[in-house]
Amino acid sequence: xxxxxxDLGRKTYEREGNRMKESLWKQTYENILIGxxxxxxxxxxxxxxxxxxxxxxxxxxxxFRKLRRENQWFxxxxxxxxxxxxxxxxxxxxxxxxxxxxxxxxxxxxxIAFCGGILxxxxxxCFFFGTRQELRKxxxxxxxxxxxxxxxxxxxxxxxxxxxxxxxxxxxIIIAAYxxxxxxxxxxxxxxxxxxxxxxxxxxWISDGKYVGGAVMVTVAGLIISYLFLDSYHMxxxxxxxxxxxxxxxxxxxxxxxxxxxxxxxxxxxxxxxxCKNARQVFVERDDYPMNDGVEVVSGTEGYTQYSTEYPxxxxxxxxxxxxxxxxxxxxxxxxxxxxxxxxxxxxxxxxIYPVYSGQKSGWTVNxxxxxxxxxxxxxxxxxxxxxxxxxxxxxxxxxxxxxDMMEHSSIFAEFSMPRHGENYCGYVAxxxxxxxxxxxxxxxxxxxxxxTLVQYPVLSAAQSRKQGGVMDxxxxxxxxxxxxxxxxxxx
Length: 492
Hints:
This protein has 2 domains: 2-229, no CATH class; 238-486, no CATH class. The protein contains 12 helices and 15 strands. The chain has helices spanning 2-40, 48-67, 72-94, 100-105, 107-137, 145-163, 169-194, 208-229, 246-258, 262-267, 270-275, 462-467, and strands at residues 238-239, 281-289, 295-301, 304-310, 316-324, 330-339, 349-354, 364-366, 371-378, 381-385, 389-398, 406-416, 423-435, 442-451, 477-486. A hairpin with a 7-residue loop joins strand 11 (389-398) and strand 12 (406-416). It is elongated, with a radius of gyration of 33 Å.
């Protein structure tokens, strides 16, 4: 009786072991197919377009890793999945790098992106051929309908991508077809399971969990480094040298007598100052603006309650100055900013200017290029730098989407970053105009955009946010507007 019980226990153990082996194959192919589903189906909200493919390729990689010694197709799939993991991590990290659009536009990245784009279909094919080979070992023939469906699906994807298709109906059909392919592959894997295929657990030096954890840690570390060091413009800061030129001092005294504020005057570069020699008149408009949420104030009279917001702190001073130069009808327009207190700089800043000469009808024409600089102080020493970008740009926005089409705009953009430790942060942009017709207002507008948070994904510059219509204002960015509106020849 004892021997019979031992035999029964051994047989039970063997059956349980076989079931575990069979379940290992089932778990493996299910992970691969689920992972392929995550890779192929993208959801563009809540960062799922990055998170799901990342999870998906890790599932695929760990699945092919268990199969790598079964046949050469699974081995190729393992190598391809490893390459896709690397490309996916790099792609995620690049999203936190300022200027990643330029990287995406490079030839090297286009090659990498192409490889990353074809790898999913290659992995699906490797799984098909690897499973087919194992079935053939067991004298089971399968049809090639699945492979044909894979090829048709991929060709359709390429055509739609080249066509830049953005519709919903064909997209849903493509998704449904992809799901159908994965279901077909699942049936194929089930056939192999029914044929008695048993996947042996292979000894490994590094567990799947450690591989996954390592990939996550590398990705997180890359994001942290990008946010700390690669999310702002590289600015060439130099010490400000005090001018000893008597001509410059005479011009300063003259502009001061005409009403140009001293703080704006002291921030002008030498070239802009010299162009203002023998200026005829100066108009200035300036105001302080809050860059905070303010304080809610509740007041009420006779049963009526009124809610309002007050701003005891106004961190930013914006100024506009129009200086008529020595030659009548020629003006220098200056937009100036100065931070009354340190706001905490977390990436990029931008000035967006709608110049006087913009618009279809204007009595002014541009007369020269753009000039300007940014400045700050640290330990009593003043530093200056050119803008990272200072140019007039044409760009398109989808105004009022989905009710309106793309609209073309034109603005001056000045883009820059400030050091995170300093004081007296300020700067300006200047341009010259020439009168075409009499009695036209000098009407120039400025949008100052400040980045509120360090972490955003994908990283946008302050200027890019403006070009997208300021959709991120209030969360990632804050924008305030100032206008210079004066009628030459008339003083209030």
